[in-house]
Amino acid sequence: MTEPIVDSSENVFSDLGYAPEEAAILQMRADLMADLRKFIKKQKLTQVKAAEILGVSQSRVSDLIRGKWEKFSLEMLIILATKAGMQVTLKTAA
Fold this sequence. Notes:
CATH class: Mainly Alpha
Strand content: under 5%
Largest sheet: none
Helix content: 55-70%
């Protein structure tokens, strides 16, 4: 028997059954972490150099690169993104 195909809600966390408010925060955290990893890769930064730019330890950069999302609050990710020169905006549904 095959599983039915279900259209995505555009938020994997909603699709996994998280409450809407929690799914929104988890999605924002995931997006910011991905953007920060892209920034580090695009700039060809070492973890040490990235740590200097972001004002954190090298081990925190390692956690970021390894996707350890549970170690980063949304607020911390916004701070890191701002230090990386990104403009963080909140997108709301109409």
